[in-house]
Amino acid sequence: MEVTGSTYVGDYVHGRIEGKGCYTLPTETKYNGTMKDGMFHGKGTLYFPNRSKYEGIWDCGISKEGKYTFPDGLEFKDKKWHYCDGYDRRFYTEICSGLKPAGISQLTNLDPPRMIPQGCYDCGDGFYNANTRVVIDYKLRFLRNADDDEHEWIIRTCRKGWDEITGFKPKQ
Q1: What burial letters (b/e) apply to 42-51, b meaning 16+ CB within 10 Å?
Q2: Pick from 46, 48, 50, 70: which is nearest to 58 by CA?
Q3: Residue 115 burial (CB < 10 Å; 0-12/13-18/19+)?
Q4: Mean of the per-residue pLDDT values for the chain?
Q5: For residues 116 and 18, what is the distance between their CA atoms, to the nearest angstrom?
Q6: 59-65 long-range CB contacts below 8 Å, 24 or more apart?
Q7: How far apart are CA 23 and CA 36, in angstroms?
Q8: What is residue 152's three-state secondary structure?
Q9: How confident is the model at residue 33 (pLDDT cuts 50, 70, 90)?
Q10: Three-class secondary structure of residue 148 per DSSP
Q11: I need a surface site. Which of 3, 26, 74, 122 has the fewest CB within 10 A?
């Protein structure tokens, strides 16, 4: 595991990872559950660094069924998915807590929105610096270098750190 940067704390059988344990990948994604012959097997949960999770039933490393939950508690449904579709563009927090009064906008699912460093973009899993083409996570740790397609998508669609939030301003 030293080669891959992963760690494992749990049961072994004949020197192989097997039984209950916690396997941590170099990306800080953690799997808590049962293992068989070094693979996810049986019930287990993947916990992702962005606080989302996938609870599933695994067979020799392959997920056979499961449920993905976003960091805000929204559960993904592959059928009858009504969140953020062409007819309803509300954020999940707006669905749960209601809309703000007219003139007061909610820009992201987080309210108030995350502060973006000057000169960067919020690309969903971290901040992107267009000059260096590097994406760092929200704890300011390196995630990846952006290729040309991702760079263009971020520039075209993501919130910028130098945007001013506009909206309701009370009369003085």
Answers
A1: eebbbbbbee
A2: 46
A3: exposed
A4: 85
A5: 43
A6: 60/36
A7: 12
A8: helix
A9: very high
A10: helix
A11: 3
